[in-house]
Design a protein that fits this description.
This protein has 4 helices and 10 strands, in the order αββαβββββαβββα. It has 229 residues and is of the alpha+beta class. Among the domains are: 70 residues, Ubiquitin-like (UB roll), CATH 3.10.20.230; 86 residues, Ubiquitin-like (UB roll). The chain has a 5-stranded mixed beta sheet with strand order 2-1-5-3-4, covered by helices on one side.
Length: 229
C-alpha cells in the first residue's frame, strides 16, 4: 500500500463496551480499525464473543441516553457503548459500575445489590443489611478477589448466584459451575456460605489448591483470617 493510502486510512478507535442491563460487568475494551473490522456486523460479532453475551449482539447504544449507533463510522474514540440484542436499552449508571453500585439496583437476574462498603471496613456492609464474601478465580494468582454483595432480604437461587459469579469472575474456562472453600470443599447452597468468607469460583476444570489468600489478600487487611467453614 502506498504512503498516501496509509495516510488516508482512518485512525484506530479505542472504545469500551458494557453489557445491557448488567450492573456487574465493568466493560470490555476494543480497538476498532478498518483492517480488523470491515463491517459493523463483524464488530458486533466480535463483541458478542468477547463479552460472553447470552444472545447475539445486534445493537449498540450510548450509555447515558440510549441513542442507537447505526454504523461503524459512528463510533467515537475514547467513548463507551452498551451492547444489546433486540431487547430495549436498559438504563443503568454504566459509567460508574467499576466504582460504585447504586443501592436498590437490581441486576438482570432480579437480585438486589447493595452499596459497596469500604474494603478496609467490611463491617459497614452490615448496616446496609448486606451479605458479602470475597471470591478468587480458580488457578489465578494475579487477580485479587472480587466482592460479592447480596441483600439479605432477597431470596437467592443457587443457579442465580452461579450466573452472577460467571459475570463477575469472567473465567477463561467459561461459566462458573461451582464454588469452593479455600480448602477445596465444594459449597452446594447459600446456607453454607459464611458472611465475610473467602471462596474460589471454579469452571469445568478441577479446583486448583493454591495460596490464594496468602498471596492476594493484603497484609494490612481488616480481615486477615480466612474462613474455611
Amino acid at each position: 500500500m502506498s504512503s498516501r493510502g496509509l495516510a488516508l486510512a482512518p485512525p484506530a478507535k479505542n472504545v469500551v463496551v458494557y453489557r445491557n442491563g448488567d450492573p456487574f460487568f465493568h466493560g470490555r475494551k476494543f480497538v476498532v480499525n478498518q483492517r480488523r473490522f470491515l463491517t459493523f456486523e463483524a464488530f458486533l460479532n466480535e463483541v458478542t464473543k468477547s463479552i460472553h453475551a447470552p444472545l447475539a449482539v445486534r445493537n449498540l447504544y450510548t450509555p447515558r441516553h440510549g441513542h442507537r449507533v447505526a454504523e461503524l463510522g459512528d463510533l467515537q474514540d475514547g467513548c463507551q457503548y452498551v451492547a444489546a440484542g433486540f431487547e430495549k436499552f436498559k438504563r443503568l449508571n454504566y459509567l460508574n459500575l467499576g466504582r460504585k453500585e447504586l443501592r436498590g439496583t437490581s441486576n438482570s437476574k432480579g437480585v438486589q445489590c447493595c452499596v459497596h462498603g469500604s474494603r478496609r471496613n467490611p463491617g459497614s456492609w452490615h448496616t446496609l443489611d448486606c451479605f458479602y464474601c470475597s471470591v478468587f478465580r480458580n488457578g489465578d494468582l494475579l487477580s485479587p478477589p472480587f466482592q460479592l454483595l447480596l441483600s439479605k432480604s432477597t431470596p437467592l437461587q443457587w443457579d442465580t448466584l452461579l450466573a452472577m459469579l460467571t459475570v463477575k469472575a469472567d473465567l477463561r474456562s467459561g461459566a462458573v459451575n461451582k464454588l469452593c472453600r479455600l480448602d477445596g470443599a465444594q459449597v452446594f447452597g447459600e446456607e453454607e456460605l459464611v458472611n465475610g468468607g473467602y471462596y474460589v469460583a471454579v469452571g469445568t476444570e478441577e479446583y486448583k489448591k493454591l495460596p490464594y489468600f496468602e498471596l492476594l489478600v493484603p497484609q494490612d487487611s481488616a480481615c486477615r483470617t480466612p474462613w474455611y467453614v
